[in-house]
Specification:
The chain has one domain. Helices cover 23% and strands 18% of the residues. Strand 1, helix 1 and strand 2 form a beta-alpha-beta unit. It has two helices and three strands, in the order βαβαβ. By secondary structure, the protein is α/β, with parallel strands linked by helices.
Length: 90
């Protein structure tokens, strides 16, 4: 018997942060005048569309609080959550 979920809902989240940052794999600089989308997450989400429904929450750009992100997740009820939490630290 397979443990796979048929047509799963997968949530991709760019987690909230107090500043407008560009979250990347190696470094997450603060941006004041512009911000690029989180390309790594978008790339993964585009592939995940082949196996299920994708929900994308960019809490940095939408300036969402952690509570607002949780509310959206409770509404969407995803089977999986994918996010990129890291920052480069010196």
């Amino acid at each position: 018997m397979s443990a796979a979920i048929s047509n799963p809902t997968i949530a991709f989240i760019n987690p909230p942060y107090k500043y407008m940052i560009q979250r990347k794999l190696r470094c997450s600089p603060i941006r004041s005048g512009y911000i690029f989308p989180p390309m790594e997450l978008l790339s993964l989400a585009s592939v995940a569309k082949r196996i299920g429904r994708v929900v994308f929450i960019d809490a940095v750009v939408e300036q969402l609080s952690a509570e607002e992100v949780i509310d959206r997740l409770q509404y969407q009820r995803p089977d999986m959550i994918v996010f990129m939490p890291g920052f480069e630290s010196l």
